[in-house]
UniProtKB/TrEMBL annotation:
<dbReference type="InterPro" id="IPR011009">
    <property type="entry name" value="Kinase-like_dom_sf"/>
</dbReference>
<dbReference type="Pfam" id="PF03109">
    <property type="entry name" value="ABC1"/>
</dbReference>
<keyword id="KW-0808">Transferase</keyword>
<keyword id="KW-0418">Kinase</keyword>
<dbReference type="InterPro" id="IPR004147">
    <property type="entry name" value="ABC1_dom"/>
</dbReference>
<dbReference type="InterPro" id="IPR051130">
    <property type="entry name" value="Mito_struct-func_regulator"/>
</dbReference>
<dbReference type="GO" id="GO:0005524">
    <property type="term" value="F:ATP binding"/>
</dbReference>
<protein>
    <submittedName>
        <fullName>AarF domain-containing kinase</fullName>
    </submittedName>
</protein>
<dbReference type="GO" id="GO:0004672">
    <property type="term" value="F:protein kinase activity"/>
</dbReference>
<dbReference type="InterPro" id="IPR000719">
    <property type="entry name" value="Prot_kinase_dom"/>
</dbReference>
<feature type="domain" description="Protein kinase">
    <location>
        <begin position="134"/>
        <end position="481"/>
    </location>
</feature>
């Protein structure tokens, strides 16, 4: 005799199967609304000849779009929280976008406490009471893939951070990425002459790695070992893995106390220090110096680096020290690309358009010139893509505006593996703009790039400009305004 039909079970199974289709439909409806809104506005705004009125019209349009983008990313969650991190940067996006989207960095809807308990007990094979002496059910932060809780293990005297993956998040995020790839392909064929499709493919590959916390733990330990064993104090703190408390969906690590970098201004003001004064500026410079030094060491010397320095992953600790969190996204650059990028860093530091063009070719960045003064525009494009410094008086790059280098130099092919470097530099620039410090990471990284090329036999001793091999990396990377 056949078992009785369970309508509720059928309904639940159908809901699970239809969920990706529902998300896809919601994405395309909302993305089309935002995109067509800007296209219609571009037609309307040309009829207004007054520049100030035009600017006011653009501001209103950006505010309207910001609300729609925020609503889409907040409602859909998942990968769209990462989209908010990528596009909501003060050096890249319109101010209304940044103001609205920055709040989504670490504010994903948390998984309910009872579900967290189920995940932990299923993964660890013990009850929470057997494992933890104390466990704060209110999450310290909830992001797109996981949330973090403060706790204390039984028989221990120090607090730990427990990272717990949201159930079912992988299927949703991979659906989101497939939709984004299709949208990127459409955009590069119509409006943006840049190889967006390759970038979204690399994002899909990198994010696919984030769902295995064992891989993240290995990455965290590898980077910690590299930075802590250079013969000098590490420029950033890296959490330590705690015991054997590790599975694919649960990661227990050292708890590091600090202030999220987005709250730095408020914290400075609380201490009675003028956020725009000399003391605050010196602290911000020191923070950026150490963060930039850490990334220069990782990218150019090791090739293995933390590839997600968005504000939610950076804590400011006592003495302006920096802690770098979340090692779900890491990249291991092949030596060929690492050394090619080192050559590009020197070209940018030297402001050399010929070397920049040569480095682009060496890296496999295929461009098509659509203008006069090709070499100058190529250098500007390289600076836009791979340096943190903004031109004098410029607060936002607007890389896709009509006068931008991307409109004059079409990027037909972009190596997928370089996307992590590109994203890292852009996130560092966003941080620098947010802190009000304009600087060049290429200039800061020059000594490390020279050392990397020298060690590989691609640079002779007489070609050194900063002589880092004789002075040491850390002493040669003095802060330059």
């Amino acid at each position: 005799m056949a078992p009785p039909f369970d309508f509720k079970e059928f309904q639940a199974n159908l809901s699970v199967k239809l969920r990706p289709l529902q998300r896809s439909f919601q994405f395309w409806v909302r993305a089309a609304d935002i995109y067509t809104g800007y296209k219609v506005f571009q037609v309307r705004v040309v009829f207004e000849k007054d520049a100030q009125k035009q600017e006011a019209m653009w501001e209103r349009q950006h505010e309207l779009a910001a609300e729609k983008i925020y609503s889409m990313c907040s409602d859909l969650g998942g990968f769209f929280l990462k989209v908010a991190q990528i596009i909501g940067k003060p050096d890249l996006a319109p101010a209304p976008w940044v103001k609205r989207l920055v709040t989504l960095c670490d504010h994903a809807p948390p998984t309910p406490a009872n579900v967290v308990r189920c995940v932990l007990e299923a993964e660890l094979g013990q009850s929470m009471e057997e494992v933890f002496e104390r466990f704060d059910l209110d999450a310290l932060g909830s992001a797109s893939i996981a949330q973090v809780h403060r706790a204390r293990l039984r028989g221990d005297k120090i607090d730990v951070a427990v990272k717990v993956q949201h159930p079912g998040v992988q299927d949703l995020m991979m659906t989101d990425l497939r939709n984004l790839k299709a949208f990127a392909l459409y955009m590069q064929k119509t409006d943006i002459k840049f190889d967006l499709y390759s970038i979204t493919k690399e994002m899909e590959k990198q994010i696919g790695y984030e769902f295995d916390f064992r891989r993240e733990a290995d990455a965290m330990e590898r980077i910690r070992h590299f930075l802590y064993n250079q013969g000098k104090k590490s420029p950033v703190q890296v959490p330590r893995l705690i015991g054997n408390m590790l599975t694919g969906k649960v990661l227990v690590m050292e708890y590091i106390d600090g202030v999220p970098i987005l709250n730095l201004g408020d914290e400075i003001a609380k201490r009675g220090i003028n956020p725009a004064g000399k003391v605050a500026t010196a602290a911000k410079q020191n923070i950026l110096k150490n963060l930039t030094l850490a990334y220069g060491e990782m990218i150019l010397r090791s090739g293995y680096f933390h590839a997600d320095p968005h504000p939610g992953n950076i804590l400011v600790c006592k003495g302006s020290e920096i802690a770098l969190l979340d090692y779900g996204q890491v990249k291991d650059l092949p030596d060929e690309l690492r050394l090619g990028y080192a050559s590009l860093v020197l070209a940018l530091a030297d402001n050399d358009p010929i070397k920049a063009s040569e480095s682009f070719r060496e890296l496999g960045i295929d461009t098509l010139k659509l203008c006069e003064q090709e070499e100058i525009e190529m250098l500007k494009l390289a600076q836009t893509m791979f340096d943190t410094k903004l031109p004098p008086g410029v607060k936002m790059l607007q890389p896709f505006s009509e006068g931008s280098s991307i409109k004059k130099i079409s990027v037909r092919a972009f190596p997928e593996e370089l996307f992590s470097v590109l994203r890292t530099v852009h996130l560092l620039r966003g941080l620098s703009v947010g802190l009000g410090i304009n600087y060049s990471c290429a200039e800061q990284w020059r000594p490390i790039a020279e050392e990397a090329l020298y060690s590989a036999g691609r640079l002779k001793d007489k070609d050194f400009r900063s002589k880092p091999r004789r002075r040491g990396f850390f002493s040669s990377l003095l802060w330059r305004k």
